[in-house]
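Recap quiz, item 2
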Amino acid sequence: MFSKPGSGPAVLRKVSQEASKVDPAQRRDFLKKGLVVAGGALAGVQFASTLNAAENNLPPNLPEWSKSLGAGVITNPYGQPSPFESDIVRRTVPWLTADRIAAISFTPLAELDGIITPSGLVFERYHAGVPTINPDEYRLMLHGMVERPLIFTIDDLRRFPSTTAINFLECPANGGMEWRAAQMDALQFTHGMISCCEWTGVLLSTLLEEVGVKPEAKWVLAEGSDGSHMSRSIPMEKALDDTLIVYAQNGEPLRPEQGYPVRIFNPGWEGNTSVKWLRRLEVGDKPWYHREETSKYTDLLADGRARKFSYVQEGNSVVTFPCPEKPLMQKGRYELEGLAWSGNGKIKRVDVSFDGGVNWKQARLKGLVLPKALTRFSLDFTWDGSPALIQSRSTDETGYVQPTFTQLREARGNSSIYHKNAIHTWRLHADGTVTNVQIS
Amino acid sequence: MSRLAKMVYVVFFLIALMAAMPVTAKDGQYGIGTPATASEIAGWDIDIRPDGKGLPPGSGSVEDGEMMYEEKCASCHGSFGEGVGRYPVLSGGEGTLTEERPEKTVGSYWPYASTLWDYIHRSMPFPQPQSMSDEEVYAITAYVLYLNDLVEDDFVLTADNLASVEMPNKDGFFFDDRPDTNNTGCMKNCKDPASVKITSEPSIATLQEEESVAVVEVAPEGGEKVYQQACLMCHGAGVAGSPITGDASAWSVRIAQGREKMVSNAINGIGVMPPKGGQIQLSDEDVASAVDYMIKQATQD
């Protein structure tokens, strides 16, 4: 069905490379057609006839779809995106992991608008694949240093007062492949381990109150029910603050890939702590130091020491247009767009540079500006065909300014893997293509 | 009935009523949820702490662990813990944490031996998590410690001595102290334009190579999809002696038995392979499509 070689960004790059050989006057037309062809090829042969008929459907002619009836209701009981958008999908990088079961896929950030990530495009991170869980057989156990250990069904959890919040979810390894050098050739792979959804559930503090936490309790262990039984120690301070026990995402039951039927969600914190397919919460007086908080998800520094329990995803940002998947088609006016986020609160401002960080302009924040959520920013600019080094830099409400890569490396070295939040650079070439670079 | 008898009756009735009421209704604010029994908790409470809290009684020797490790672990982690493909390296790497390419292993990086017991019991072996007995977990843990020169070859690991196994990097970790950078947010003439140099970018050669090998993959359909979901983790690497995908000679004996027999083995399980590769939610047709995919891989040029 899908032609694997040359899908997605590779196609876009090829198209834009071809475009650079074409007479500038005809370039826009070429790019437009080229992209339609690329999209059609991805979607499959059924669109070939549509392409041939394209001219007949343009003004002054009446398009085919205006002269006939379309599909009726319930043709798709659960609606799907237009088949013409079938290349807006999660993608993986095979060499990153040993197999597809304990692996990662990335959100196509370049293709999305606003701040909400559609549930089906939220990046995936599994350690033992996606379990199939019948909600009737689901139980959440809450025990340990509590007065009344309890077991909850889904119906039980839904009886408690619910809380809804829009928060980003980011894997702390997002951008981790870029620590030593620019390596990935698409926004989807440099920053695609992030998403932002509306999450609904019951506050963990409500459940902890229900079971009665003993005074000496300081930590909560969250444990999944998938084959990996993912486990993380969460300090009581966070558990009593904004940690949610989530059963709904973007208005519908949690997706299987996101932990159906129930996950824990720690707003602003590294995604690994938001354990999916949650089965158990144990209250204790010390952290457990399990594999995912010792061997993994600790930040090794240049001096050989490692930072542990580095939960917060600090201030970050990236330009989503232009980017490698979205080159500039012609000279003229554009609206640069990007996303900023901070695990410490709201985004206060974003600055953009076109000269590799020598001079900066303040961008405007668009739409909702929420704490611990993706925040969209934009800046109008006119492209005269000059090459540029495009960067964005976020400042959050605590005053934290996103660091340059030089500053981050001075503080940590190159071996941390996790929590790479440095200012990112896109190189805009004279032909309008965009590549990933790092600069001094 | 006398008044006294009535009062006694009412008091007894109230006591009986209170005893019958769920504890939660009395104590929790909402009275939602069912009390977790000791046996329910015991079945799921698997976590182990560095101080040994949570360890079940039992023991296992390095000697016993060697055979078990070879059978259950070596196909991914290598006979000496060196790692196969991109599966984790378990041993070596001492003194590399400050090097350009640090090797973070059990011996070079992990701060506590308890983590090893907990993780092996919790998640391993990869295709069949929580299938091992406590004795097996003790023995394999002992053997991995031995592979890292942390215990002698006659060592026997027990619930009592695990917490006292000292890990070389136990003092190598510190609590989060970020922020550790201080960008001042300069707006104008922040650096010399001449100092702005490109230090790295994915090379053109790399890009062309990536295009030809399709670094950007869309998930496959049909038999290949099922294969990647249920079969790849073992048949990709030859875990537990399974025939490796595409290995014509290893598969020829199976193919000689006929497709029907192969599909039936895949559905019902054979030897150490669990039914449907452990993914019982798959339909028989799905499993058959994956078998067809693997036959194709073994028979194509």
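The longest helix of chain B spans residues 3-20.
The domain at 222-299 of chain B is CATH 1.10.760.10 (Cytochrome Bc1 Complex; Chain D, domain 2).
End of item.
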